[in-house]
Amino acid sequence: QLVESGGGMVQPGGSLRLSCAASGFSFSNYDMSWVRQAPGKGPEWVSSIGARGVTPAYRNSVKGRFTISRDDARNTLYLQMDSLKPEDTALYYCARAVVWAGVPPRNYWGQGTQVTVSS
């Protein structure tokens, strides 16, 4: 099970930190990802982090602004989002990265947390 939290409404240029609590599987053994879906659009991959410190990957539009991390002792995945833009508005999901740097099947996602960037 994956449970996201930390979403909200923020002004452009602001920051949010998303968390994802994992349970029911050996979190430390799995690559993990963040995926987002904006209203009326298909899901898009945001970032992936490998098990045991494999170098993270980011989609180009968030490079330098978002940072993915994990705490295996707490079975928790994070996404630090800085310099947020209105185009970052979406439902954000954490997911098991059965596909590296891609969108995994929906059954591997959590329930999502809403991020809204607006002035």
**Proportion of residues in β-strands:** 35-45%
Low-confidence stretches: none
How many distinct helices? 0
SS-based structural class? mainly beta
| Major sheet details | 6 strands, mixed
Note the gap between the termini: 34 Å
Order of helices and strands: EEEEEEEEEE
Task: Record the strand order, biggest sheet.
Answer: 2-10-9-4-5-6
Q: Which overall shape is indicated by the principal axes computed on the Cα atoms?
A: globular
Oligomer: single chain
Helix-residue proportion: under 10%
What Rg do the Cα atoms give? 13 Å
Q: What number is the mean pLDDT?
A: 95
Number of strands: 10
Task: Provide structural commentary.
It is a single chain. The protein has 119 residues and is mainly β. It contains no helices and 10 strands. It has strands spanning 2-5, 8-10, 16-22, 32-37, 44-49, 57-58, 66-71, 76-81, 90-96, 113-117. A hairpin with a 6-residue loop joins strand 4 (32-37) and strand 5. The radius of gyration is 13 Å and the shape is globular.
Key descriptive features of the protein:
six-stranded mixed β-sheet; 119 residues; 0% helix; mainly beta; four-stranded antiparallel β-sheet; single chain; 10 strands; 44% strand
